[in-house]
Write a structure and sequence with these properties.
By secondary structure, this protein is mostly helical. Helices cover 67% and strands 0% of the residues. The protein is built from four helices and no strands. Helix 1 crosses helix 3 and helix 2 packs across helix 3. The longest helix has 13 residues. The radius of gyration is 11 Å and the shape is globular. The two termini are 21 Å apart.
């Protein structure tokens, strides 16, 4: 299972505690990289993030200065 799939599952369906554990394990930068890599793919290959999840975590990553990752 890839890091992108793990991040997608936790961000979509996990709790805030799950998110904190994810950050502890991978680090904020790697989580942001996986998130932005997944949402920046073509429409056909794009991950299955809910629109509200994309908006929320985009705001979170921008707040902590890791939104410029491509």
């Amino acid at each position: 299972i890839s890091n992108e799939q793990i991040v997608e599952t936790i961000l979509n369906y996990g709790t805030l505690d799950d998110f904190y554990l994810l950050i502890e394990i991978f680090g904020l930068k790697k989580v942001a990289e996986a998130f932005y890599c997944s949402i920046n793919k073509s429409n056909r290959a794009r991950g299955n993030y809910h629109k509200s999840i994309i908006n929320f975590f985009d705001l979170v990553f921008r707040r902590y200065g890791v939104s410029d990752i491509k």
